[in-house]
Design a protein that fits this description.
By secondary structure, the chain is of the alpha+beta class. The protein has 8 helices and 17 strands. It has helices spanning 21-31, 96-110, 119-124, 147-157, 183-191, 252-267, 293-300, 304-317, and strands spanning 4-8, 35-39, 44-47, 50-60, 68-70, 76-79, 85-88, 114-116, 141-144, 159-164, 174-177, 198-202, 211-217, 220-229, 244-249, 272-278, 281-286. The strands form 3 sheets. Strands 1, 2, 3, 4, 5, 6, 7 and 8 form an 8-stranded mixed β-sheet that branches. It has a 5-stranded antiparallel β-sheet with strand order 15-14-13-16-17. A 4-stranded antiparallel β-sheet has the order 9-12-10-11, covered by helices on one side. Strand 13 and strand 14 (220-229) form a beta hairpin. The longest helix is centred in the C-terminal third of the chain and has 16 residues, at 252-267. The radius of gyration is 20 Å and the shape is globular. The protein starts with a strand and ends with a helix. The model has no long low-confidence stretch (mean pLDDT 94). One of its GO terms (cellular component) is cytoplasm. Pfam families: GSH-S_ATP (PF02955), GSH-S_N (PF02951). GO terms for molecular function: ATP binding; glutathione synthase activity; metal ion binding. Belongs to the prokaryotic GSH synthase family.
């Protein structure tokens, strides 16, 4: 039986194919004979009670100079319920337009589309805040807009990380040590002078060994991780912030943590998730468009994308 998949993503012409997880998922879908359809979030629309996508069929090739071709000269309109599956792979920021897209995809889901990840869970599971559902696996954390509380947390822990709740790629992440003269302005900046919530976490010294990306696919923990190691003089391991990615086998402790979290991910319909683990702590749970798949596949000759599409095909048989 032939299948079709709608990929909702950022502009396909701007991706870096060698490390783009969404592109790797498209390659796997095509290899399996799925028809690929592409659109951006603004191409979704609701008319009366039906959700449509203005989309184009595409083909892909693992060629960094010429990685996609449109099969339709112009966008065509398709009811979202007619696709076998829809992959929501739009990168953050997680703004109101993103939320509106999840409402449309949730309605499409009710009309028969298999949407990954589950749209309601994309809204519910903020990538920073969702760690609070697993306090036994997280560092000491405070979420607040109150400067006095944040300063008290800094005084208690002496060395902390402060970050916004809606960022990605290491953007606007600050480290503040005891007596940091910039603490007040950091707090003012992140909270917009007490209007916005921000997160403070105890600094984890094991960041020097890497911020490990652990992928969980259909509830199964991938046995390899990508350690994002900060460059010299930097706190952040994010690749977008200049960190270097080093593939390595998962540790027993990392596997134990991921396996403890996996059942809740499955309960919420989160089939493709990236956990960020530093030392013995989960610092983020990435559900919108987790990355690092291609690096692990290339290093260890494994097929992570295949695990996801096998799970989708099994669901479609039911």
């Amino acid at each position: 039986m032939s299948h079709s998949v709608l990929i909702v993503m950022d502009p396909i012409e701007s991706i870096k194919t060698q490390k783009d997880t969404t592109f790797g998922l498209m390659l796997e879908a095509q290899r399996r004979g799925w028809t690929l359809h592409y659109c951006q979030p603004q191409d979704l629309y609701l008319e009366k009670d039906q959700v449509f996508a203005a989309n184009q069929r595409v083909s892909v090739e693992d060629n960094p100079q010429n990685w996609f071709q449109y099969q339709d000269a112009e966008q065509v309109l398709t009811e979202c319920g007619d696709f076998s599956a829809i992959l929501m792979r739009k990168d953050p920021p997680f703004d109101m337009n993103y939320i509106y897209s999840t409402y449309l995809l949730e309605l499409a889901q009710q009309q028969g589309a298999l949407v990954v990840n589950d749209p309601a869970s994309l809204r519910d599971c903020n990538e920073k805040l969702f760690t609070a559902w697993f306090p036994e696996h997280t560092p000491s954390t405070l979420v607040s807009a109150n400067a006095a509380r944040l300063k008290a947390f800094a005084a208690e822990h002496q060395d902390i990380i402060l970050k916004p709740l809606d960022g990605m790629g290491g953007a606007s992440i600050f480290r503040a040590k005891k007596g940091d003269p910039n603490l007040s302005v950091i707090i003012e900046t992140l909270t917009s002078h007490g209007k916005n919530l921000a997160m403070a976490q105890q600094f984890i010294p094991e960041i020097t060994d890497g911020d490990k990306r652990v992928l969980v696919v259909n509830g199964e923990v991938i046995p390899y991780t990508l350690a994002r190691i900060p460059r010299e003089g930097e706190t952040r391991g994010n690749l977008a912030a200049g960190g270097s990615g080093v593939p390595m086998p998962i540790t027993d402790n990392e596997k134990r943590i991921a396996e403890a979290i996996a059942p809740e991910l499955m309960r919420r319909g989160l089939l493709f998730v990236g956990l960020d683990i530093i030392g013995s702590f989960v610092t983020e749970i990435n559900v919108t468009s987790p990355t690092c798949m291609r690096e692990l596949e290339n290093e260890y000759q494994i097929n992570i994308a295949g695990q996801l599409f096998s799970a989708l095909e099994d669901q479609l048989k039911q």
